[in-house]
Amino acid sequence: MTATTNTGALAGIRVLDISRILGGPYCGQILGDHGADVLKVEPPQGDDTRTWGPPFKDGVASYYHGLNRNKRTMALDLGSAEGREALLALVAEADVLIENFKTGTMERWGIGYEALSERFPRLVWCRVSGFGADGPLGALPGYDAAVQAMTGIMSINGESEGGPLRVGLPVVDMVAGLNAVIGVLLALQERQRSGRGQFVEAALYDSGLSLLHPHAANWFLDGRTPRRTGNAHPNIYPYDALRTGTDPIFLAVGNDRQFASFCRTIGLPELSDDPLYRDAGSRSVNRDGLKQRLESQLATFDGRQLVDQLMAAGVPAAPVLSVDAALEHPHTAHREMVVEMEGGWRGIGAPVKLSRTPASYRHPPLTPGTGFE
């Protein structure tokens, strides 16, 4: 998909993105995808992620390219009086400011929220932080993997007999960015009533804890420390990756009807009437024996063909694809989830689809700018 016209829901909203790394830039990119005019201000040496490669294009890492489309970019040294004055001139025109400086940095420069909120009463100030400004961990820097470790995510990720494992993508940073978007939109909506902006914060620590469902819900109810279950769901079975005669497949059987359909499809209709597996709770408790019986039967099937049969029967199932196979899947193209812009830039499309005001892709990363459009 290639698109250039701005028909977005946020057209007319001006966003000053002075954040770097991931959570803040991801927030700014989403707002830009949906029509906001986003001006990204970087230090003279550029956002750190420009160096996070390989691969590189013209000396800039793919990591940066994946987070900074639909922005125009300029450089300011906020450590200098001249840079701060230039920033204040831009703040005067902005609806939203996104930053993720270490707590206290902007305050030392005299341009923190408290110093500027009365001067710019309509400004929505969004901070993506590690742990918030106060409390036992307040003002400490936060990094995705460290927060995964501290919030329990690593403890429930990995094989049951293995050690704690980091989720293989920066899930905390990305969810913090999504929470920042939600916060900005909530504040803009409230501004319609009050005429005033407000301070919005999305902390990595809070975002990490928010991801713990259903493990936190289980612990609140029974007090048992959640454990690693590999690919298997802690509450539902079969909701797991299972071996077949060829490639493994993932099953997501969530109710008794689906389980009965699954058993019929693989030639074990009697299994759904077995007292050990008749209902969801029993299947979860007796999962080890059930997995053995299923994989013994699935050894006679071609995995890819079986997925098609199961989906046709209303049983959620999927092949286990590599990243390149997923990005090249025909449905990925149909959903316009790979986009291309001038200069051959390609990236992941916007996942939220609006019927009248769709996302658009107007500025490739590194588009220069000196002010709002």
TrEMBL record:
Keyword Transferase recorded: yes
InterPro entries linked to this entry: CoA-transferase_III_domain, CoA-Trfase_fam_III, CoA-Trfase_III_dom3_sf, CoA-Trfase_III_dom_1_sf
SUPFAM superfamilies given in the database record: CoA-transferase family III (CaiB/BaiF)
Domain of life: Bacteria
Listed GO MF terms: transferase activity
Keyword terms, alphabetized: Transferase
EC number: 2.8.3.-
Gene3D superfamilies registered for this protein in UniProt: Crotonobetainyl-coa:carnitine coa-transferase, domain 1, formyl-coa transferase, domain 3
PANTHER family with a match to the protein in the record: SUCCINATE--HYDROXYMETHYLGLUTARATE COA-TRANSFERASE
Record protein name field: CoA transferase
Organism: Variovorax ginsengisoli
Origin organism lineage: Bacteria, Pseudomonadati, Pseudomonadota, Betaproteobacteria, Burkholderiales
